[in-house]
Q: What sequence folds into this?
């Protein structure tokens, strides 16, 4: 007996982590994300030299930083995607609490970098925007609450999550950061919708959003100016939006050529909010459509995988993460093509930005973790004579 | 707390009766319900997730399509002045009574800088200083290299300057289209027009707002888009105004006066045909308001409507006219003029001793203070106040200039009988030349009050009657006699039958203690032709002194009257009046043929 066991590889009753990860991960989504990251580096090569020149660094300073933070983000993504949903939930809740406290402390410790809204912590070598980290944590916490609320004899999760949402939205609106506030609100709305919200309530909520929007329009000059700029029929060509629109037109279907773009020199936010304009100018519609397709396939594919998911928490959290990811990309690109009013929002994984990259990596890692193939009790269903 | 019923009740009761723990049954029940619920919610979530997926797919497609549409469209050249093309003439023109332009707009450009976009700030600064000598290169360079992202350099550019700046070629120097106010006649009617300056300024346009005169008074009217750029028609006549200014300027210089004012007014319509105040200024380049010294010496000060002066003997006709109106006197009533007239501590003297008695006509013709004071005593305080109030001498004139509101007459704080006496010959009550013109117009037009106006009128005013036709006619006869045989003998202009009254008032000292001996305000208030007056002309000289004789002469008869006469000589033909030359006496006609 002894010699039979001695020296041999110990038998484990669980599957090894890496093979299991490779077997169950959504490889399509992951590929899309990796491609997006590559596109981000590629566009960073095009869009960030003007900024580097302005700030007195060598031309590809920001590309190097992007690659460095991107590497960190990929590590974070992979590490997160290997965790099981329960571990993800635990860490996310901890992270959420941390980010929430950081958000609360912003007015006292944060800086506004001269942009009029206190959203960042300056760490010297990099800056951190707590709301970026708050988003994935919030989705998980809210999904947990909503899922728990569905249990028989469970806590009143829906009301809790609503209170939480309203609190965070208020905090963000006070910065003011209406973009993130809307994202949070939207993420919660999607989760509530999938959790089985009554249709009537959803319609009412849509009305509420309209009301809140008009309130913000009347009370915040910052907000009103952007809406006015959007509603006015002719775009002033000297605004960022005008330059962006022009750059897209300039690029045409195949672009003006690598490094030939002009718009990056005139747009202060070429490397963040308007990176899609740089992409459109230099690489043309082709690359833009590829980028859109990548985002769309990540989101839609995640939804399709989550449709099979039995666990309400995993389903809701995954839905919230995917929806937020997709909406952020959509808003960013929608602004550049003037489908939506101007709103500073980064293109996830493509725009430059240290903390947003890492936070995006964590969020996507969570999404990957939630969309991993899991036994969904199919045999039980078959045995009980119920399909699927 | 709502108590959850035990379910399924039948099995639990059964188990209880058998002494078993019912909790297991209930948990089993909950598990089954959970599973069922989970399946239901999964089905529902499946549908909703599908909806979400479709929604996202559609939204991304829309963004993609829009991108495609944009890519397929033609790029437009970014132009900094895209919105500037739409600037139209926003401020209405101002024209005179014959439609000649007094104020109009000119399209020009302002110059501003955006230092972040500058290629070579040093060169831009030095070149700019070369184009605009009043700018300093060091200051500009400091602005261009400092933290400022935007600064105005010049508010208006001439085309040459614009080209010169354009030739500097720095992309950080930009032009904003502007509409500037232009007064093509320069100093002409400067005080009436006032001036305009920029209000709120943007890169693409700036508001032009009136800062003084009619530009300020009618600012809303001039900027009202509903008026559709319809010009504002003033009552001024440009050629009359020009002649009046020229004559008054010459007169002011000849008489060594430091300032002068003239008001020419139509006695029936109240239209002001000409309004001059000297020294004047160029409204195109309006000087800054004086911050030190006497504001009334600034060229911006409008002596005709803002300056309140004791207008001296010109007031005498009011006292006499009122006394005639009240039936107290007639033109031939004799008045005791033995001087000096002692009243309390105050003595009233005449310029010369006119003997012991004068008729009312002679009191006016000789300008006797004592005689007028006695007439005023007959009238009394209350009736005099009432009459002067009816002539509009108690409140600022309603002429349509923002400055007119400042021309509030100074009344004695305590209107005693002595005040009545001094006011009757023009001391103790200060009013503007415009007030005087309105008062004389009431006499000239037959006894109805006239409000002076700067707007072109279509017909005569029918104001309230302040005296009867007969009184007005008698007063006019006296005023005519002042010219033909009295103090205003230099005022005779052949063919225009000028009538009027001189007034020489010592200037009160600024610190309030008495009067200067050698500083006067000389005024000639006239109307022509005296038998049927069409116009009233007031000429006022500030501190005139006529030095051609052995003694310096300061009385209005030697200073203001000749200036006014020259003005009438020049202006009357321009007003379309024919000189009425009386036919020479028959005896002088030589029949050359029959």
A:
């Amino acid at each position: 007996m002894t010699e039979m066991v001695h020296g041999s590889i110990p038998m484990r009753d669980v599957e090894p982590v890496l093979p299991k990860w490779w077997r169950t991960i959504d490889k399509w989504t992951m590929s899309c994300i990796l491609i997006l990251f590559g596109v981000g580096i590629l566009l960073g090569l095009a869009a960030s030299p003007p900024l580097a020149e302005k700030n007195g660094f060598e031309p590809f300073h920001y590309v190097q930083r992007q690659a460095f933070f991107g590497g960190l983000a990929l590590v974070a993504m992979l590490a997160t995607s290997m965790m099981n949903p329960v571990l993800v939930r635990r860490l996310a809740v901890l992270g959420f609490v941390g980010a929430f406290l950081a958000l609360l402390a912003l007015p006292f410790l944060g800086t506004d970098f001269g942009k009029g809204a206190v959203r960042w912590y300056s760490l010297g070598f990099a800056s951190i925007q707590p709301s970026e980290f708050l988003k994935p944590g919030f989705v998980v916490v809210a999904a947990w609450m909503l899922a728990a609320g569905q249990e028989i004899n469970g806590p009143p999760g829906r009301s809790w999550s609503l209170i939480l949402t309203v609190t965070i939205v208020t905090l963000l609106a006070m910065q003011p950061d209406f973009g993130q506030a809307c994202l949070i609100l939207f993420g919660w709305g999607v989760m509530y919708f999938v959790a089985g919200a009554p249709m009537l309530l959803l319609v009412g909520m849509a009305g509420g959003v309209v009301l809140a929007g008009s309130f913000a329009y009347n009370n915040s000059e910052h907000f009103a100016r952007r809406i006015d700029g959007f509603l006015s029929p002719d775009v002033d060509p000297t605004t960022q939006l005008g330059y962006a629109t022009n750059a897209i037109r300039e690029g045409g279907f195949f672009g003006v050529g690598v490094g030939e773009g002009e718009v990056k020199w005139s747009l202060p936010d070429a490397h963040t909010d308007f990176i899609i304009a740089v992409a459109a100018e230099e690489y043309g519609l082709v690359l833009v459509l590829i980028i859109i397709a990548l985002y769309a396939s990540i989101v839609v594919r995640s939804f399709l995988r989550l449709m099979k998911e039995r666990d309400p928490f995993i389903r809701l959290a995954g839905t919230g993460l995917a929806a937020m990811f997709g909406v952020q990309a959509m808003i960013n690109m929608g602004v550049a093509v003037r489908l939506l009013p101007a709103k500073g929002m980064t293109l996830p994984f493509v725009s430059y930005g240290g903390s947003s990259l890492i936070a995006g990596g964590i969020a996507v890692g969570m999404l990957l973790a939630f969309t991993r193939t899991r036994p969904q009790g199919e045999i039980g269903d078959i045995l009980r004579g119920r399909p699927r | 707390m709502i108590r959850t019923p035990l379910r399924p009740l039948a099995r639990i009761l059964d188990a209880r009766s058998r002494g078993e723990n019912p909790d297991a049954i209930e948990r089993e029940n909950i598990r089954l319900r959970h599973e069922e619920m989970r399946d239901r919610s999964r089905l529902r979530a499946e549908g909703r997730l599908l909806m979400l997926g479709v929604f996202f797919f559609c939204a991304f497609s829309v963004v993609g399509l829009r991108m495609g549409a944009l890519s397929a469209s033609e790029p437009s050249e970014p132009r900094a002045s895209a919105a500037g093309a739409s600037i139209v003439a926003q401020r209405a023109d101002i024209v005179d009574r014959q439609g000649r332009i007094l104020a109009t707009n000119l399209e020009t450009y302002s110059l501003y800088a955006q230092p972040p976009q500058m290629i070579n700030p040093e060169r831009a600064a030095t070149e700019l200083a070369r184009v605009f000598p009043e700018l300093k290169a060091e200051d500009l360079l400091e602005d261009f290299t400092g933290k400022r992202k935007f600064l105005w350099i010049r508010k208006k550019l001439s085309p040459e300057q614009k080209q010169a700046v354009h030739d500097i070629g720095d992309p950080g120097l930009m032009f904003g289209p502007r509409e500037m106010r232009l007064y093509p006649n320069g100093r002409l009617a400067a005080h009436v027009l006032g001036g305009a300056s920029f209000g709120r300024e943007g890169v693409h346009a700036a508001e032009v707002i009136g800062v003084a005169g009619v530009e300020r008074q009618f600012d809303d009217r001039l900027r009202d888009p509903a008026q559709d750029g319809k010009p504002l028609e003033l009552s001024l006549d440009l050629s009359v105004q020009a002649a009046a200014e020229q004559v008054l300027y010459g007169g002011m210089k000849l008489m060594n006066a430091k300032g002068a004012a003239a008001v020419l007014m139509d006695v029936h319509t109240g239209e002001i045909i000409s309004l001059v105040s000297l020294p004047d200024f160029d409204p195109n380049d309006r000087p800054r308001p004086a911050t030190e010294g006497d504001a009334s010496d600034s060229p911006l000060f409008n002596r005709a409507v803002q300056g309140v002066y004791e207008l001296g003997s010109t007031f005498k006709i009011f006292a006499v006219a009122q006394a005639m109106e009240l039936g107290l006197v007639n033109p031939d009533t004799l008045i005791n003029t033995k001087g000096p007239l002692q009243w309390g501590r105050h003595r009233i003297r005449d310029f010369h001793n006119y003997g012991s008695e004068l008729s009312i006509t002679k009191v006016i013709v000789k300008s006797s203070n004592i005689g007028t004071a006695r007439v005023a005593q007959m009238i009394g305080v209350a009736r005099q106040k009432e009459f002067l109030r009816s002539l509009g001498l108690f409140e600022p004139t309603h002429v349509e200039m923002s400055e007119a509101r400042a021309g509030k007459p100074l009344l004695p704080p305590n209107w005693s009988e002595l005040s009545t006496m001094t006011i009757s010959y023009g001391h103790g009550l200060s009013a503007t030349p415009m007030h005087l013109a309105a008062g004389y117009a009431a006499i000239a037009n037959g006894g109805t009050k006239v409000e002076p106006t700067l707007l072109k009128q279509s017909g005569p005013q029918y104001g309230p009657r302040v005296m009867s036709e007969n009184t007005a006619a008698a007063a006019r006869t006296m005023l005519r006699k002042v010219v033909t045989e009295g103090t205003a003998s230099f005022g005779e202009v052949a063919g225009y039958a000028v009538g009027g009254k001189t007034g020489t008032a010592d200037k009160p000292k600024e610190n309030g203690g008495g009067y200067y001996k050698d500083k006067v305000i000389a005024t000639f208030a006239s109307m022509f032709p005296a038998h049927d007056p069409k116009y009233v002309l007031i000429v006022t000289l500030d501190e005139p002194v006529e030095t051609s004789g052995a003694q310096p002469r300061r009385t209005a008869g030697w200073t203001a009257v000749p200036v006014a006469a020259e003005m009438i000589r020049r202006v009357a033909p321009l007003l379309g009046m024919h000189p009425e030359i009386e036919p020479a006496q028959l005896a002088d006609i030589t029949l050359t043929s029959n």
In short: Chain B has a mean pLDDT of 84.
